[in-house]
Write a structure and sequence with these properties.
single chain, mainly alpha
Length: 111
C-alpha cells in the first residue's frame, strides 16, 4: 500500500530549523564575502570610461574667493547705508516715523 504523505512529512522539521539557526553566522559571512567579491570584481576588473569619473562643476578656490568678494561687497554696502543714515535722507521724515512708531506701540499695549 502506498503512503499518502510526502518525504518531507517523515523528516523532523525542528531539526532542520535548529541547524539553520545554528549556522546563521556562517551564512551571513558567506553571503557578505560573495557580495564583496562581486563588488571588488566590478571595481578592480572593469575598465573605466571617462564618464565614470565625476568632474566638479567649479573649483573650490574659485568659489571661496567669490564668497569672500561677495562678503566684502556686502560690508561696503552696509557701511554706505550706515553713513547715509547718519547724514539723513532728504525724503525721510523723522517726526512722522517716531509718531507712527508710538502709534504701533500704543496699539500693541491696548491689545
Amino acid at each position: 500500500m502506498a503512503s499518502s504523505g510526502t518525504v518531507f512529512d517523515k523528516m523532523n522539521q525542528s531539526d532542520a530549523f535548529s541547524e539553520i539557526v545554528a549556522d546563521r553566522d556562517r551564512f551571513k559571512t558567506e553571503i557578505y564575502q560573495q557580495l564583496m567579491k562581486r563588488v571588488k570584481k566590478h571595481l578592480f576588473s572593469t575598465e573605466r570610461q571617462k564618464s565614470d569619473y565625476v568632474k566638479p562643476r567649479t573649483n573650490e578656490t574659485v568659489s571661496h574667493h567669490s564668497q569672500i568678494g561677495n562678503h566684502s561687497q556686502q560690508i561696503e554696502l552696509l557701511e554706505q547705508d550706515s553713513a547715509n543714515m547718519d547724514q539723513g535722507d532728504k525724503n525721510f521724515d523723522r517726526d512722522a516715523f517716531n509718531k507712527m512708531k508710538e502709534e504701533i506701540k500704543s496699539r500693541k499695549e491696548a491689545k
